[in-house]
Amino acid sequence: MNKTLDEAVELASQLSEKVTENEKADVVICPPYTNLSAVAQVIKDTPIGLGAQNLFWEPKGAYTGEISAEMLKSAGCEYVILGHSERRQYCYETDETVNKKIKRALQAGLVPIVCVGELLEQRKAGDTEQVVKTQIKGAFDEIVKNDVKTIIIAYEPVWAIGTGEVATPQQAQDVHKFIRTLLANLYDEEAASCVRIQYGGSMKPANAAELLARPDIDGGLIGGASLDAESFLGIVRA
Predict the structure, then answer these.
(1) Taking the complete model, does pTM exceed 0.85, yes or no?
(2) Helix and strand totals (H; E) in the chain
């Protein structure tokens, strides 16, 4: 929940001047709902993609305050973040509601960026793999292989979000590898290799290259470091 309309347009303008067709990374920005249409206009002739931070699982109706996949598409979105830890924490989202949202996003032609990750007490108890496994199995219930191949997963250790704490590159790699192996078991090796698995937990220019060098870390879901153009661009370059 950052950036007014004017601030978002300014940030998008700064990024659109620097992100070129030559990037080795695919770049997507996910502003708040109120800024989507304006930002879409700023980035329309650039390689930057547009995503939203959430959606509701019904296409329309008496759901005051909610936003549908069709609304996001009409605003210019191609992607949508689903199941972020803050949505789970503050808005009581569950694996079941995340699953419904993934299905709706796929039906509408949006690429879901599905977030999973453990709390600090769960990591200390040695429950990281069980928590992540439960979240993925719940979120991907009844999702077929061809759809899974288009989904992006973001592993966000909740204890490392906005805290300055970062999973070590090896800790992050271990969980990413576990997720890929789990996908291979649930589907097959081809599906597992197609899924992009991003790290989301205080990635910044100073640590991005080391994290992204790991074989199963395919990118980043960037929070605080995305609010400043140069900071975000530093991660893109990494």
Answers:
(1) yes
(2) 12, 7
